[in-house]
Amino acid sequence: MSKLHNDSIFQLIKSLTKSEKRSVKLFVERTGGNSSKKITRLFDYIDKHKLYDEKKLLKSEKDLSRIQMPNLKAHLYQQIMKCLSVSTPKTMEMKVSDTLNFARILYNKCLYTESIRMLEKAKRIAIQTDLHVLLLEILELEKLALMQTVREGNEERIISIIEYTDKTAISIQNINAFSNLSIKLNSLYQRIGFIRNENEYKNVSKFFHTHLPKYKEDKISFHEKLYLYYSYTGYNFFIQDFKTGYVYAKKWVHLFDENPEMIYRKPELYIRALNALLVAQNKLLLFSEFQGTHRKLISLKRDENLLKTENINLNLFKTIYLHEINRHFMMGEFTAGTRIVRRFEVELNNLMPKLDNHSILIFYYKIACLYFGASNFRAAVVWLSKIINEKETELREDLHAFARIIRLISYFEIGNEKLAEHDILSTYRFLKKKGSVNNYQTLILNFLRKLKQNNTQKKLLNALSELKIELLKLESSQYEKRAFYYFDIISWIESKIERKTIEEVIKEKMKKKVT
Q1: pTM
Q2: Residue 241 CA neighbour count, 13 Å, CB half
Q3: Distance of CA 266 to the CA centre of its chain
Q4: Angle at 68 (CA atoms; ends 66, 70), nearest 5 degrees
Q5: pLDDT of residue 410
Q6: What is the DSSP string of 200-219?
Q7: CA 177 to CA 182: how far, in whole Å?
């Protein structure tokens, strides 16, 4: 049986809106030829069912044979894509690409002068909108077309084309270098989280700086700057230098502020820029700035001029709600934060098939920490278990490790000694296997392991006080301090010693810290 996650035609049909489904059916009836009725029945079956069961389909549709199905599905897929290509609003890249294709058609018909006119139009837009890859294609075709014509001023045009080609090729080379750096660092971060030791820092730093191309910031194009700031922001976040990361994230957002038309042409990268700035403002506790940046993000969702594809809507959903949760963390408003979770949990579940695994893990972890901060430890365990039961532990090893630590503490809070004892052993085995048993984790595991010995309130308070002293020593360590980004264990200890809720302790701290 083929299910939705492994059948491409099923996924495509389920992604369609009601109006798109109507358009597809009309398109198939008009262009599908003799097989249009069979294709329509296949479309209707998939549209009506939650799972794609080919055996049931063949039983219900007697005139469809198993032999026909691969061709029918392929034909239906093509028809849907053709329909969508006609009905989907055109981006600037698509418009330039269409104009370039028209120029190719004219060139192939030996209408060289007409082809050049079309290319001039495409080139003008490509230069204005900084579309380097398309511009290079336009210039290459223009060279060919000019060689087929004898016109006044051809020599000047050829010199101009050569200059543009050289400049564009360098820009593309730089963009590739910057974007390659970004994606490589992002891949490493998704696997391990923040760097963990001096060796990792040296390797990452060496990789980053040896792969940076030579450039002059005031001479490079919008797109070069875009990926330059993207790569520098990611690098500084990765090595936990949030102050420098904040500087580059601000440059990244300011680049769009100076070129507002690019917000509508590159909305996904603008959302990423806002996300990066929000991350930095969150880490540096710049609450007033954070609020302003978050309002920018929300206003983007309400902007009627922005073409909101499903991809853009998904990115807006992820970023807005993730930082709405972070806003509650910054203010220590955990109970209020859990109300947000209940409000968007249905939407989150609906979007789950479209979300990447990394985003899902982050949501689970953030939500679990909200419930922990609200002292709802049972709910925290539910969300943490979603991470721990995830088979793909190679993704964000750090989140998997800290999810186990927080679940252990939650079991302690609930009073479930049996599960806590079992989890201590499995957590230690997991950390040892991943080679990530640091001092922070060792101190917590040792404390939890000795809980039975601290069987009176006085002994427990003494043990907690000792744990706090030892953990505070780690806050100044360059690599151990990263643990405190994941879980504010000091505030939890203080809540036990002072007999307050975690929320009360963190609220008091945040009032003094946030600016």
Answers
A1: 0.81
A2: 12
A3: 15
A4: 90
A5: 92
A6: HHHHHHHHHHHSPPP--TTT
A7: 9
SS3 101: helix
**Side chain identity at residue 184, one-letter code:** K
How many angstroms separate the CA atoms of 241 and 121, rounded? 45
Q: Which amino acid, one-letter code, is at 168?
A: T
First to last CA, the chain: 56
Q: How many domains does the chain have?
A: 1
Other C-beta atoms closer than 10 Å to the C-beta of 148 total 12
The residue assigned the tokens 């709802």 is 376
Residue 91 per-residue DSSP state: P
Instruction: Say what the alpha-carbon torsion angle 29, 33, 36, 37 is, to the nearest 10 degrees.
Output: 100
Structure tokens at 328: 């509650």
Helix (H) or strand (E) holding 323: helix 310-331
- Per-residue pLDDT reduced to its tens digit, 403-428: 988 998 899 889 887 787 778 878 87
CB 83 within 8 A of CB 23: yes
Within-domain flag for 44: yes
Question: Cβ distance 214 to 224 under 8 Å?
Answer: no
Beta-bridge partners for 52: 2
Summarised one tens digit per residue, pLDDT across range 258-310 is: 999 999 989 999 999 999 999 999 999 999 999 999 999 999 999 998 888 88
* Residue linked to tokens 């963009």: 175
Token readout for 273 is 């820029």
Q: What does the alpha-carbon distance between residue 492 and residue 498 come to, in Å, rounded to a whole number?
A: 10
Backbone region of residue 435 per phi and psi (left: phi > 0; alpha: psi in -120 to 50; beta: other values) = left
Q: Which domain holds residue 37?
A: 4-87
Residues 361 and 395: beta-carbon distance below 8 Å: yes
- CB atoms closer than 10 angstroms to residue 457: 8
Bridge partners (DSSP) listed for residue 444: none
Question: What is the distance between the alpha carbons of residues 460 and 493, in angstroms, rounded to a whole number?
Answer: 11
Summarize the confidence of residues 367-396 as an average pLDDT: 88
Residue 451 within a domain = no
Q: What is the CA radius of gyration of the chain?
A: 28
Q: Identify whether the C-beta of residue 371 lies closer than 8 Å to the C-beta of residue 377.
A: yes
Distance CA 123, CA 14 (A): 38
Position 42 in a domain: yes
**Integer Cα distance of 489 and 495 in angstroms:** 10
> b/e for 188-211, b at 16 or more Cβ within 10 A?
bbbebbbbbeeebbeebeeebeee
Token digits of residue 415? 């009073």
The answer to whether residue 339 sits within a structural domain is: no
Residue 249 tokens, joined: 């994230």
List, in order, residues 6 or more apart from 222 with CB less than 8 Å away.
130, 255, 259, 262
CB contact at 8 A, 154 and 207: no
Within 13 Å and on the Cβ side, how many CA atoms surround 192? Answer: 16
Q: Which residue has the tokens 């793909």?
A: 392
Chain mean position to CA 135: 28
